[in-house]
Amino acid sequence: MAQNTSMEEFEALLNESLEMDTPTEGSVVKGKVIAIEAGQAIIDVGYKMEGRVELKEFASPGEAPDISVGDEVEVYLRSSENARGEAVLSREMARREAAWDRLEKAYADDARVEGAIFGRVKGGFTVDLGGAVAFLPGSQVDVRPVRDAGPLMGLKQPFQILKMDRRRGNIVVSRRAILEESRAEQRAEVIAKLKEGDTVDGVVKNITEYGAFVDLGGVDGLLHVTDMAWRRVNHPSEIVSIGETVKVQVIKINKETHRISLGMKQLQEDPWDLVAAKYPLGSVHTGRVTNITDYGAFVELEPGVEGLVHVSEMSWTKKNVHPGKIVSTSQEVEVMVLEIDQAKRRVSLGLKQTMRNPWEVFAETHPTGTEVEGEVKNITEFGLFVGLPGDIDGMVHLSDLSWDQRGEEAIQEYKKGDVVQAVVQEVDVEKERISLSIKAVGGDRFAEAVGGVKRGSIITVVVTAIEDGGIEVEYEGMKSFIRRSDLSRDRSEQRPERFNVGDKVDVRVTNVDPKSRRLGLSIKAREIAEEKEAVEQYGSSDSGASLGDILGAALKGDD
């Protein structure tokens, strides 16, 4: 009986010993390096189980294997025995299992982990976290895009775990989060030492269209393009270059966002302090055109002081043209100071004021009555526009085109480009208008012809045409028409055919109309007037004398 009990106890102890000493497949076990040969380490994991592990599994990325005989190491027991009777071991899988345990704890504690970038994959890089491989997205490498990640390869550095899934074997890490945290601490420390108005040195790190970022020793400040110089700056690269050390003034600090605004021009003398004294109203200066817009051109009087020449102040004559047709960028021009607004830092300039008003010059050199010559520039429904000296135009109204034709008819005889002669009628400098007359060239023939003629005058005319309704006659080159009813006092003699072209006839002037430029003429009125005069002078028919006797006496008296 006692012997049976002893055998049972021995068997239980033996089984317990076997369970304790025999490693479980699929677990991490401790072993001892008993030999190194042929690039492999031979490891004893107990219970007379030995296995081989490639030396490269004991090396970190980019480093030589760190293993020697007698070292105790942890390995993963994949199988107790292979075809050669050896245990199948893996150092890499052991490291991975240990790493995952460690990384899960770090992820839960939101702690940093150490790793090394060892490869490049699509969209980012691979990182060895002491046995576990993680993915580092390209956007999480640095706070700014990295063009060359070569210097970072194989370098042990801290990372932040963003996401991990042990079942799928996925780990995503960030280097950027570590840098931002570090920069935030450094930025807070630097900003705490700065105050608005301080003058500091910085290094230009980046240049954009709107300014430059300057490193102030761990924190960046923005140097806006408008704060680089008092003058107009088209691009920041005109003033600074990347890597250059510049002296700047702290303009504003936002404690919440840690944004710092910097300025360079604030360290220079403001040219506007002397503008009013240097550029009095009405003074003329030479400047350089720096910018042209639809509404005018900006002219630099000196670095930092610009004025605007509005399009309305650019030319006396070119009213509706783009400023770029009058001046060009970088051109030097003479301008007059018209207005200064010190508060708004604005100077209004005039270009045309440096030249004499062409209408004033024309009025001085071409008084009323002066004859001028010019090209027809435009034809409108109310007249012609004629080009004159000084690049100005004068207008010939329809009524001033011809003495003999209606304006609508006379204007048909002109076309653009015709050179015409005209007489200056009026110059209105204020309204910039010049009135011309083409018909006045050579004088007023009607006025000259009828200068001594008045209503009731007896004049001699020449018959130029015979018509059914009367006869056409001419006096001193001016034509008139005598109607049939005015050809004679006697109705039987009111026949146009009794006259011949070339006949000279005495007529009485019944009307002088300068507006229509016509003389009213009548033979009948002359005969009646002559009869009346004879009656008054030689008697009255009422006294018994016949009209024939009276006229006979009048004719004898004339003789």
Short overview:
The chain has about 550 residues and is of the alpha+beta class. Helices cover about 20% and strands about 40% of the residues.
What does this structure look like?
The protein has 559 residues and is α+β, with helices and mostly antiparallel strands. The chain folds into six domains: 26-109, Nucleic acid-binding proteins (OB fold (Dihydrolipoamide Acetyltransferase, E2P)), CATH 2.40.50.140; 110-180, Nucleic acid-binding proteins (OB fold (Dihydrolipoamide Acetyltransferase, E2P), Beta Barrel); 194-267, Nucleic acid-binding proteins (OB fold (Dihydrolipoamide Acetyltransferase, E2P)); 271-350, Nucleic acid-binding proteins (OB fold (Dihydrolipoamide Acetyltransferase, E2P), Beta Barrel), CATH 2.40.50; 358-437, Beta Barrel (OB fold (Dihydrolipoamide Acetyltransferase, E2P)), CATH 2.40.50; 445-538, Nucleic acid-binding proteins (OB fold (Dihydrolipoamide Acetyltransferase, E2P)), CATH 2.40.50. Helix content is 19%, strand content 39%. It has nine helices and 30 strands. The strands form six sheets. It has a five-stranded mixed barrel with strand order 1-2-3-5-4. The protein has a five-stranded antiparallel β-sheet with strand order 8-7-6-9-10. A five-stranded mixed β-barrel has the order 11-12-13-15-14. The longest helix has 20 residues, at 2-21. The protein is rod-shaped, with a radius of gyration of 58 Å. It starts with a helix and ends with a helix. The model has no long low-confidence stretch (mean pLDDT 81).
